[in-house]
Task: structure prediction
Amino acid sequence: MLLLVALSAIIAPFVFLVLFKMPAIKGMSISAIIVILLALTTWGMDSKVILSSVFQGTHKTFTILWILFGALVLLNTLRNTGAITRINQGFQFISADMRVQAIIVAFLFGALIEGAAGFGTPAMVTGPLMIALGFRPIAAATIALIADSSSVMFGAVGTPVAVGLSNIPGADTAFFNEVGQTITLLDLGAGTFIPLILVSILTSFFGERKSIKDALPMIPWTLLIGIVYTSSAYLYSVLFGQEFVSILAALTGLVVASLTAKKGFLLPKTEWKGAMKEGFKVDTSKSSMGLVTAWSPYLIVVLLLLGTRILPWLKDFTNTAIDLSWVGILGIDSINSDWKFLYSPGTILTIAAILAFIIQRKSTKTFTKAAKESLSSMKTTSISLIATLAMVQVFSNSGLNSNDLLSMPQYIATSFADNLGFIWIFVAPFLGELGAFITGSATVSTLTFSPIQYNVANQIGLDTNIVLAVQLIGAAAGNMICVHNVVAASAVVGLAGKEGEIIRKTLIPCIIYGLLAGLAGFIALSLI
Result:
């Protein structure tokens, strides 16, 4: 009975969004009410703790909405300046094939953003960019979410590893780098297939023929890009440590993908445009804007993200200058919500939008118009996110109860460990996925479940580094189905209310990735 209550935060959203096909604003509101009532009655949480958790979720919503606004205002500003038209023309020069564009934009450019920023930012940037390239909105959102997976283990300059594993006994830089190398080694057998999976989902669900046959000619090229990304990730983890794996592997992949696509190497001769939205036409008129000028705002985003994460003085300044964090909500010391305003990707995206109209020599009206457009499209999303994050924080804080129960996520993990220890290497990635599905963070999933994964591995004699690596891969895969990521990705492409439909599509590759991670872990354990 208690396990069922603990799982309510997983079961309710799945039932209402995926099975009943409710929009998130309704489905997540009902889910939040159910979880809160069960937390209050069965789990024994105090009403003050629950109210504090709801306020924590609301505050966290504003941090996500700010990132969402930044992504939208940048895209809308670039539309108004004409930069998006020029970027589109640049992609046509490399390849007009939408399968290729999905890999370059969503998987590789998204990995670069993930490596620098993390926290769900890539899908909010690459989704709208794909819309501008002509992708149908639901295709753009789905592909952006699936693509933001392999790079997540090392997102935000290695945060999921360094912070997620920080509560493991003896954790230090050497340990983080060891686990990082194990992750990249296992991902050679899992992440390598993500580009192929991306193209398969794109053609099967969103193509005119809705057939996987349109993905088959792409097998050689997608496997090449997958191998380049995962093998270079392993090399960089060995040479430089885990912090810069996603950034460097993404840059390597972008170079190889662009050069091979331009030459048509391993690519079919027929260009595929089956996911193009109705009525979309590429503007072929000659643009006076240079390609570097058009891309410069995105380059600024990457440089500012890296600078605020790597340069000690800049990192310190952006983390302390404007601090909108809420500490000790309602007097409960352990319930807090961080919001370092200048450090937020939302601020950086907004700054890039402001610099865009200056660099591209356009009127301030291009930005003000973009800001109004962006704000008007975020109304429904804010309610959905508040409900989602309120539920998440009640779930996460459920260890604060009068019944001396573990928190709901810990109760789920220990119950699984007690009953499924004999096949744990296959269970471990899905525990990571469950954590990310609810919390929306590979870091939080790993921070919550890594001690349990570590203890189970020790109890049944498994290599702890392999089990922890599989946890992180699973947590990264869970990014595809995380409710608040899906809500944000839907909103940014103008699809509020279609969250369940998107999850039904991202669930398939999420499960496949988990199975591949478990299999890679099993093989690695067999070779020891």
In short: Residues 70 and 346 are 5 Å apart (CA to CA).
